[in-house]
UniProtKB/TrEMBL annotation:
Cofactor: [2Fe-2S] cluster; Mo-molybdopterin cytosine dinucleotide; FAD; Mo-molybdopterin
NCBIfam families (UniProt xref): xanthine_xdhB (TIGR02965)
PANTHER family hit by this protein: XANTHINE DEHYDROGENASE
Family (UniProt): Belongs to the xanthine dehydrogenase family.
Entry protein name: Dehydrogenase
Pfam families assigned to the protein according to its UniProt record, in alphabetical order: Ald_Xan_dh_C (PF01315), MoCoBD_1 (PF02738), MoCoBD_2 (PF20256)
One GO molecular-function entry: molybdenum ion binding
Superkingdom, natural source: Bacteria
SMART domains: Ald_Xan_dh_C
Lineage: Bacteria, Bacillati, Actinomycetota, Actinomycetes, Kitasatosporales
EC number in record: 1.17.1.4
UniProt keywords, alphabetically: 2Fe-2S, Iron, Iron-sulfur, Metal-binding, Oxidoreductase
Length: 796
């Protein structure tokens, strides 16, 4: 077993425990960025001036009326920026634009003594626009050839030969929706300047180092004059990876110009209308199968709705291409990706980061093609799994490690869910109920873990041991409720060999751990856990030498377990607190900076080849639904999941992540329906679903009535921290099982073997139209049979 994955005696990792801030969360004592305003004196409040057109050139911006509003202190415009007027890493997102690019685009910010004064001041600012043509829908952008960014192509094998060898060839299109993050805490930042002009920014950000970088270049400062701290987030899901930077820069600019703390906190409507979403996609595809239903060739084009600027759209598309195979070996493939430029908010990272979109395309294809091939969808999926020992690689050339786990989790979930027996029950139920049908589907996932950009796969930590034996851990990851800090506490305690209560975690700050990567790509525990472990190993090595001298032994024979240093095979021991005090008096350094870089990664973005992922996470889910034939309304009766997290660092945290990810995925696929005004009226481009009253989120009523989650056992991942695997993003794709179960239930209203197309999100309305299509297929079959019978009688 590798040094990184090996666990010591009596580890704290692997123990189920609640989230380290759970008590604070449920009692309301947990502090978030905006809560700090009430602990800060003389805070000014910022409010955006939002344009009410989808696109237009600003011809006049009159701020005088705002300054006449009582309580308004200043209006921030482009003229106030001392550095670079841009809030993006691609330099295509002006903080104060001269051209409005989407409905709700902020063109100025008003600072007021109160939030209400700032709001009234923003309403008083006069903005004149020379309105320009806009593209709102993805299809309109494709038709207009409106694209930006790279256009990668993934190619493997001989696609033309693959189609020539195919017994069955199908083609189709599929467009599916974007998704709103709807984190509980909206975007927030609080900035203040000290007496030396140093900028300190509290930000609800998944990427403090990048927030620091953007704030610094907007203010024209070097990074060492800007410190960014993230105490915790009330959810992020990727929406706070890139997009907090501009809001933090507004707060910092206001603080710099006024000398007073400035708060930016979006209300829910502002957050919905100003922040990016999960990318909606359009897919055009052609697929070939042999006579046994095995994939021979795939030719597809995936188009992401990038919105008005690039943001993270290029890597999102890249990851979509890298996941279009999901669990299936595709020997010949040509998949092209592109980013459409539309006049909507700039779409961004969202849990799965393009992986769900790519995987949804192939799962939709399998669900649609199975009946056309005369196969049960479960059987079609099984026949195309990656197989161990076959030398199979992904379409981008990476070997699929532990491919046997695809079948293992598949078999386990079918056994746990008693799938064979329940299918017989469902068949009997459907035969007896003409207006209500049930469906049960099993789907699997294979998700690559690491950032596609190799340089991002690094993490840092700073661990401090104080004279009394207490330990403070700083690391570069951010806590958004996912339990990263809990796992890091467990990693530190395990590595040092001390009880958990000895360790505390500090808020994430750029002046403690520099140049960190975003807490994203499900790599937070891998990268920061590796760095924390590295720092603690340095400290443990120093302390074991001290203990060895004290106990008269060799350092290699000393073990620190449960807070006591002992010699192997000996009687001597030294308590942790005494050991630390002894080390201090011997002038042994009691702090260490840790670092970790993921090894074995290589990627060529131009040829779209390489091994961009450290490993793959696997999972399988079986979902059963019941659908009403009159309304399309449905309920999820039961879900069974088996998911691979390696050797879990914290099982309770991981099971919670699996459950939460699954429900969020089910929301994207079945409920959450973003709507935009695509008409030519005065509100063109306006987001219509701008509140929880119009944007349907999963709630208790959408939870499965039975929900069983099991972590795969005996699944140690070599070369990962304490043998664990990532958990944040992969479970979201397990929700494909719900969508495929809905497809099967809708198909049950029609003739056997009917292929059903299902929109995404599969809202009750969409399910109803799928049911109607299945019924029409049955009527068409009956009509054809009647006509055939009449012709036969005539011939006789």
């Amino acid at each position: 077993m590798s040094h990184l994955s090996e666990r010591p005696e009596k580890p704290v990792v692997g123990v189920s425990m609640p989230h380290e801030s759970a008590h604070l969360h449920v009692t309301g004592a947990a502090l978030y960025t905006d809560d700090l305003v009430h602990r800060t004196k003389d805070v000014l409040h910022a409010h955006p001036v939002q344009a009410a057109k989808a696109r237009g050139r600003i011809t006049a911006l009159r701020t005088g009326p705002a300054l006449a509003v009582p309580g308004v202190v200043r209006v921030l415009t482009a003229a106030d920026v001392p550095g670079v007027n841009d809030a993006g890493m691609k330099h295509d997102e002006p903080l104060f634009p001269d051209e409005v690019m989407f409905h709700g685009h902020a063109v100025a910010w008003v600072l007021g003594e109160t939030a209400e004064a700032a709001r009234l001041g923003a309403a008083a600012v006069e903005v004149e626009l020379d309105e320009l043509p806009s593209l709102i829908s993805l299809r309109d952008a494709i038709a207009a050839d409106s694209f930006h960014g790279a256009r990668p192509v993934m190619l493997t094998g001989d696609v033309d030969a693959g189609f020539a060898d195919s017994a069955h060839v199908f083609s189709g299109e599929f467009q599916f929706s974007d998704q709103e993050h709807f984190y509980l805490e909206t975007h927030a930042a609080l900035a203040l300047v000290d007496e030396n002009g140093q900028m300190f920014v509290q930000s609800s950000t998944q990427h403090p180092s990048e927030t620091q970088e953007i704030v610094a270049h907007v203010l024209g400062l070097p990074s060492h004059e800007v410190t960014v701290q993230c105490l915790r987030m009330g959810g992020g899901f990727g929406g706070k990876e890139m997009q907090p930077h501009g809001f933090a820069a507004v707060a910092a600019l206001g603080a710099r110009l006024t000398g007073r703390p400035v708060r930016v906190r979006l209300n829910r409507t502002q957050d919905l209308t100003m922040s990016g979403k999960r990318h909606g996609f359009h897919a055009a595809w052609r697929i070939g199968f042999d006579a046994d239903g095995r994939i021979q060739a795939l030719d597809a084009t995936l188009t992401a709705d990038g919105g008005w600027s690039l943001d993270l759209s290029e890597p999102v598309v890249a990851r979509a291409l890298c996941h279009i195979d999901n669990t299936y070996w595709i020997p010949n493939a040509r998949v092209a990706g592109r980013v459409a430029k539309t006049n909507k908010v700039s779409n961004t990272a969202f849990r799965g980061f393009g992986g769900p979109q790519g995987m949804l395309v192939i799962e939709d294809i399998m669900g649609r093609c199975a009946p056309l091939l005369g196969l049960d969808p479960t059987e079609l999926r099984e026949r195309n799994f990656y197989r161990p020992g076959q030398g199979q690689t992904t379409p981008y050339g990476q070997p699929v490690t532990h491919a046997e786990r695809i079948s293992t989790v598949w078999r386990q979930v079918r056994a746990d869910g008693d799938v064979a027996h329940r299918r017989r029950e469902i068949a009997a139920f459907n035969a007896a109920h003409p207006h209500t049908k049930r469906g049960l589907a099993v789907t699997g996932i294979k998700f690559g873990i690491s950032f596609n950009l190799t340089a991002f796969n690094q993490g840092g930590a700073l661990v401090l041991i104080y004279k009394d034996g207490s330990v403070l851990v700083n690391h570069g990851g951010t806590e958004m409720g996912q339990g990263l800090h809990t796992k890091m506490l467990q990693v530190a305690a395990t590595t040092l060999g001390i009880p958990l209560h000895k360790v505390r975690l500090a808020p994430t700050r750029t002046d403690k751990v520099p140049n960190t990567s975003a807490t994203a790509a499900s790599a937070g525990a891998d990268l920061n856990g590796g760095a924390v472990k590295n720092a603690c190993e340095q400290l443990r090595e120093r302390l074991t030498r001290v203990a060895a001298t004290h106990l008269g032994a060799n350092a290699s024979d000393v073990r620190i377990v449960e807070g006591v240093a002992r010699v192997l095979g000996g009687d001597g021991e030294l308590a942790w607190d005494d050991l630390v005090r002894t080390a201090y008096f011997q002038r042994v350094q009691l702090s260490a900076a840790g670092f970790y870089r993921t090894e074995g990664l290589h990627w060529d973005a131009k040829t779209f080849r390489g091994s961009p992922f450290k490993y793959f996470s696997y999972g399988a889910a079986a979902a059963e639904v019941e659908v009403d034939g009159f309304t399309g309304a449905y309920r999820i009766r039961r879900v069974d999941i088996v998911h691979d997290v390696g050797d879990s660092l914290s099982p309770m945290i991981d099971i919670g992540q699996v459950e939460g990810g699954f429900v969020q995925g089910a929301g994207w696929l079945t409920l959450e329906d973003l709507r935009w005004d695509t008409g030519d009226g005065p509100h063109r481009g306006r987001l219509l679903t701008r509140a929880a009253s119009t944007y349907k989120l999963p709630s208790f009523s959408e939870m499965p009535e039975e929900f069983h989650v099991r972590l795969l056992e005996n699944a140690t991942e070599e070369g990962a921290v304490y043998g664990s695997k990532a958990v944040g993003e992969p479970p979201l794709m397990l929700a494909f099982s719900v969508r495929e179960a809905l497809r099967q239930a809708a198909a049950a209203f029609g003739p056997a073997g009917a292929s059903v197309e299902l929109a995404s999100p599969a809202t009750p309305e969409a399910v109803y139209w799928a049911i109607e299509a299945a019924r029409r297929a049955g009527e068409d079959d009956a009509g054809a049979a009647a006509r055939s019978g009449a012709e036969a009688s005539h011939r006789v």
